[in-house]
Amino acid sequence: IIPITFMIIFILIYLALKNITYTLIIFFTLPFAITGGIFYIEYLGFNISIAVIVGFLALLGVAAETSIVMLLYLDEAMKEFKEKNEEYSDTNIIETIYKGAVLRLRPKLMTLFTILGGLVPIMYIHGVGSEVMQRIAAPMIGGMISSTFLTLFIIPAIFYIVLKRNKEFGLTKH
């Protein structure tokens, strides 16, 4: 079911963005979000189980959503840059990407702290069903922390690299 889930995630990202380049940027950066969950699962000594896989799938959904929003903010900043008809220099492009990324900082941190605020207490409860809930929450906790770095640093960097490869700095064609 995991490969089918990845296909569905790819299709949903594409349907949301209608741009194959943006879809590939987001889809191939999602493994970075997974690494935080893997490290946290390993740290806690949890084995891979259905509950852990469910936690990873939930993590992928949240990471894809926040990455999509970041990419849309970056795209919007580039559209504004093009409308101003400013000089296409590395400095101007970096400033534009920085502006788009900074606009996304507060919503991403709010998402992170809301999810952590809801999931961290699950790690400290003991009772009926707590073992299953902890295994669902653990990949999301670790993954949300690495997903924050993904969204705030890696997505803008990859966006810049893709823009540099595109001679006209124009990826906003849909």
How is this fold's topology laid out?
Elements: H1 2-17, H2 20-44, H3 50-84, H4 90-103, H5 105-119, H6 130-165
Q: What do these coordinates show?
A:
The protein has 174 residues and is an all-alpha fold. Helix content is 81%, strand content 0%. The chain has 6 helices and no strands. It has helices at 2-17, 20-44, 50-84, 90-103, 105-119, 130-165. α1 packs parallel to α3. The two termini are 31 Å apart. Mean pLDDT is 86; it is low at 169-174.
Inertia-based shape: elongated
Which structural class do you get from the secondary structure elements?
A: mainly alpha
Give the N-to-C terminal Cα separation: 31 Å
Total number of beta strands: 0
**Low-confidence segments:** 169-174
Task: Provide a quick synopsis of the model.
The protein has six helices and no strands.
